[in-house]
Amino acid sequence: MKQPELFDNALWEELVGKASELQGDPAACEHLVYRFLRQYLPALLAARTQEDRERVWRALWSYLTAPVTRAKPFGLSYSSADDLIAEIQKELGRLGYHPQE
User: What is the pTM assigned to this prediction?
Assistant: First the structure.
């Protein structure tokens, strides 16, 4: 896994932009990618156990489904959040992130 590729904004913005509820909203995509790359991805990389990784995924899911606020310009349905997390996990695997190693 190449660290620079893993933290590539463009890669994640493209992936996030495919989420049905985020299509056509570049500000929301940018906000989500910023949050993911600065908070959730580092937490995943630092997680030592499966329980720790599951905690990070649950926190991300909660963030994705939380209502819109002035500080958070989007809110996803539960199913869209599930789908987006599955796509993120798939992309992380493609990039060589294998948490069980």
Answer: 0.91
Residues 6+ away with beta carbon under 8 Å from 89: 57
Of 83, 98, 6, give the one whose Cα is nearest residue 47: 98
Nearest to 83 by CA among 16, 31, 6: 16
Give the C-alpha separation, 77 to 55, whole Å: 20
> Are 32 and 74 spatial neighbours (Cβ–Cβ below 8 Å)?
yes
Please name the residues in contact with 99: beta carbons below 8 A apart, sequence gap of 6 or more: 44, 47, 50, 53
Confidence of residue 4 (pLDDT cuts 50, 70, 90): low
